[in-house]
């Protein structure tokens, strides 16, 4: 990914490992079971900086984010995730 913002709030719930999340100018390293709130309009990013698998459940509020998924999928097709350990 790259730092970005959008009007919707984002909530990240870490379901596995530790996820690094940028909120504004500060990175936080959220462990399994943590919630991270990114208010709408705030620049953010996220990545797995560790050597083990990490995963998050991401909820955008309010909903109706689905129309953006085509562009997001195209971006990932052009910029595939890299191995964080490499």
How are the secondary structure elements laid out?
Blueprint: E1 9-16, E2 18-23, E3 26-31, E4 35-38, E5 44-47, E6 55-61, H1 69-78
Antiparallel strand pairs: 1-4, 1-6, 2-3, 2-5
Summarize the structure.
This protein has 86 residues and is mainly beta. It has one helix and six strands, in the order E-E-E-E-E-E-H.
Write up what this structure looks like.
The protein is mainly beta and 86 residues long. It has one domain (9-78): Jelly Rolls, CATH 2.60.120. It is 12% helix and 41% strand. The protein contains one helix and six strands, in the order ββββββα. Strands 4-1-6 form a three-stranded antiparallel sheet, with no helix packed on it. β2 and β3 (26-31) form a beta hairpin. The longest helix is centred in the last third of the chain and has 10 residues, at 69-78. The protein is globular and about 30 Å long.
Secondary-structure element sequence?
Answer: EEEEEEH
What is the oligomer described by this structure? single chain
CATH-wise, what's the superfamily? Jelly Rolls
What is the mean pLDDT?
A: 86
CATH class: Mainly Beta
- SSE-based structural type: mainly beta
Helix run count: 1
CATH topology, by name, is Jelly Rolls
Shape-level CATH architecture:
Sandwich
Spans where pLDDT lies below 50 across 5 or more residues? none
Give the strand tally: 6
Report strand %: 35-45%
Shape: globular
Structural domain count: 1
Strand order of the largest sheet: 4-1-6
Main beta sheet strand tally, sense and closure: 3 strands, antiparallel
Determine the fraction of residues in helical runs and give it as a percent range.
10-25%
Distance linking N and C termini: 16 Å
> Over all CA atoms, what is the radius of gyration?
13 Å
């Amino acid at each position: 990914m790259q730092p970005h913002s959008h009007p919707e709030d984002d909530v990240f719930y870490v379901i596995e490992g530790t996820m690094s999340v940028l909120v504004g100018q500060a990175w936080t390293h959220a462990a399994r079971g943590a919630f991270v709130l990114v208010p709408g309009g705030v620049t953010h990013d996220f990545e797995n900086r560790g050597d083990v698998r990490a995963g998050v459940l991401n909820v955008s509020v309010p909903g109706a984010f689905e129309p953006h998924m085509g562009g997001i999928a195209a971006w990932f097709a052009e910029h595939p995730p890299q191995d964080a350990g490499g």
